[in-house]
């Protein structure tokens, strides 16, 4: 995946990567807090952040350059956190400062990380071609 304009297939793969990253984040969080790993439990934890990810995709028009670190990745990441935390707050779920920090750092590594790797691979293959 490159940061160049995308095909529908590459946009879908990038969206899937973002959604998987968010679910992985929520699954790890539930596991580390011994909350259980049922599908319903993971869905309950993940839906606010997945909603934020979807909002980020719309705001960034991420389907145009889905693997771009800037601005796409940054917008998707910020929206994932901001919308996710707002939804958690209005639904009575936890939004402790320490959770916001950990969630922000973890989702940054995941959502920005795969894009950084894609950029590095793209640049490397461009040099070797």
TrEMBL record:
The keyword Transmembrane helix applies. The chain crosses the membrane at residues 36-60, 67-87, 99-121. This is Transmembrane protein. InterPro entries: DUF3054 (IPR021414). Keywords: Membrane, Transmembrane, Transmembrane helix.
